């Protein structure tokens, strides 16, 4: 059975009512004691439900789970297609293509992504951007930035780079030099290593299944 929010609410309510009625049996419903038992049982059942939901959520949002890929996904081609069953765009994985001309081991990829996250935190990118919907709305959401067709269409020609990752790196190191929008991104003086790490982080993030958030990204097909 697929347990969704409705099932969780109904099961929690049912258990609370049944256990309360059993433990408060013999008492009239107008007695304060009846409601005292009901309050204690309901609070306890709700606490257990919240703990179970928290454990379930932590499992689902950890790296290597169904929706959040493990770091080495940065080596794969990442597609984005519409799933009629899910009624949302979902990431798909294609063949191994590497990143910056190299295939990263699981440990190397994890280190790189962690560095990318720290660079993003150190520069407060969320003052302007959102990541997974968190942050500010001055500049585009970066959750699926890797899949933005603008890297191939605009930035590769503008920067003269050979690959999408090189174009993204060039933009991140000199965003003032390669403007593509009405608002400009300031030069945050990212070193080459820092820009590479941010590209890896953004590529990894684009492979997270976010139920199609944010909207309006075109389909990207990959060779399986
Ligand atoms: C002062 C606001 C501001 C800050 C801080 C900022 N950006 Fe930006 N960023 C922008 C704007 C504006 C754009 C659009 C610029 C353009 O397209 O020429 C942009 C564009 C981007 C893009 C391209 C997104 C796309 O799909 O079009 C990426 C990637 C990006 N920023 C990453 C970062 C990272 C990483 C940081 C932190 C290291 C950062 N930005 C910090 C304002 C900001």
TrEMBL record:
Keywords on record: Heme, Iron, Membrane, Metal-binding, Transmembrane, Transmembrane helix
GO MF assignments: electron transfer activity; heme binding; metal ion binding
Protein's UniProt keywords contain Calcium: no
SUPFAM superfamilies: Cytochrome c
InterPro entries per the UniProt record, alphabetical: Cyt_c-like_dom (IPR009056), Cyt_c-like_dom_sf (IPR036909)
Cytochrome c domain ranges (all copies): 111-206
Pfam families: Cytochrom_C
Membrane-spanning residues: 34-55
UniProt-recorded name of the protein: Nitric oxide reductase, NorC subunit apoprotein
């Amino acid at each position: 059975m697929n347990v969704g929010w409705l099932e969780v609410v109904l099961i929690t309510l049912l258990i609370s009512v049944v256990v309360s009625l059993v433990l408060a049996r013999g008492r009239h419903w107008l007695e304060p004691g009846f409601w005292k038992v009901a309050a204690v049982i309901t609070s306890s059942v709700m606490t257990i439900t919240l703990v179970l939901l928290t454990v379930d959520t932590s499992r689902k949002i950890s790296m290597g789970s169904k929706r959040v890929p493990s770091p080495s996904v940065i080596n794969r081609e990442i597609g984005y297609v519409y799933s009629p069953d899910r009624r949302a765009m979902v990431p798909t994985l294609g063949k191994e293509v590497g990143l910056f001309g190299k295939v990263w081991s699981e440990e190397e990829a994890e280190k790189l992504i962690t560095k990318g996250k720290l660079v993003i935190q150190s520069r407060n990118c969320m003052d302007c951007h959102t990541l997974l919907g968190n942050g500010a709305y001055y500049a585009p959401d970066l959750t699926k930035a890797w899949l933005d067709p603008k890297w191939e269409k605009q930035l590769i020609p503008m920067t003269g780079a050979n690959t999408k990752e090189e174009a993204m790196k060039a933009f991140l190191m000199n965003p003032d030099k390669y403007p593509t929008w009405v608002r400009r991104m300031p030069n945050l003086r990212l070193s080459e290593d820092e820009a590479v790490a941010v590209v890896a982080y953004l590529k990894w993030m684009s492979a997270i299944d976010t139920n199609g958030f944010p909207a309006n990204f075109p389909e990207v097909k990959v060779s399986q």
